[in-house]
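User: I'm putting together notes for a lab meeting next week and I want to include a structural view of one of the chains we've been expressing. I don't have a solved structure, so I'd like a prediction I can at least talk through. The sequence is below, exactly as it appears in our construct file.
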Amino acid sequence: MGIAHLARWAVGAVLVAWGAIQGTALAAGLQISPISITMPADKKADEVWLRNSSAEVVHAQVRVYRWSQADGEDVLSPEQNMVASPPMVQIEPGQQQLVRLVRVGPLGGPAAEERSYRLLIDELPVDRTTSKAGLNFVFRYSVPVFISGTAPAKPVLDWSLRQDGGQVWLRIANSGTSHAQLANIEFTPSGGKTIMAVNGLAGYALPGQYRSLRLDLPAGTFARGGVFSSLINAAKVETPVQPIGKTP
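Assistant: Thanks for the context. Below is the predicted structure for the 248-residue chain, given as C-alpha cells.
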C-alpha cells in the first residue's frame, strides 16, 4: 500500500468522522446516511443508506467490527454478533442501496454501559479492462454504531497531562456510561491566551476507556495548568487541568 493510497484511505475515514459533527458524510461519489447510529438494547436491526452521486458505478465492501480502546488508541476486532447485509454492494450512478445492520444470535442480558462498533465501508476500484471490482481500497468510510446501555447515557471525563521525553500527551478518561466525541480542543494557560490544541475532530473517549492525544505544543505551555475548552458531543465544555506532571 503506497503513500498516496494511504492518504486517500485516510481522507475517506476522516470525512465521515467529521461528518458526525457537521451533519453530512460525502467523499468521492458515495454519500452515507445516517453518519452515526445509536440502537436501543432491544433492537435487532437498523439501516444505513448508501447513495452514489458520481457518474460511475460504485463497488463497496461493508463490514462491522467491535470497537474498543487500548493504550489510548482505537482497536477494531472481528465481530460475530452483528453483520452488514448485503456485505458487498454495487450502486449505479444516481442510485442508492439499503444496508441493514443485523444483530445475530441472542441479544444477551442488558448491559449498563453503551457498546461500541464501527461500520466500515470500503470503496473498491474497478479494473476497467475487465469491468470487475479490484481488491485494493480506494476510500474507507467509518461510521460509529452504538448500542445503548440500561444506565442513563452520560460521559464522565477526567482530563490529565503527561510528558514523555519532549512530547506532551493529553489523556481523556471516560468513567461514564456513554461515548464522548471530542473536537476543537483549545487550551488557555493560567494567565495566558487561548491556543488551539487539536483542530477539528479529535476522536472519541469510549465508556470505561480513555483516549490519548499528542499535543504539538511545548511542555512549558502547560507548566502552570489552565483550562481546556472543547466540543463534547457537539456541546462546548470547559475543563480545568493541573500543571503537567502533577495530579489533583
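A couple of points you could mention at the meeting. The CA atoms of residues 34 and 48 lie 6 Å apart. The helical segments are 3-22.

User: Perfect, that's what I needed.
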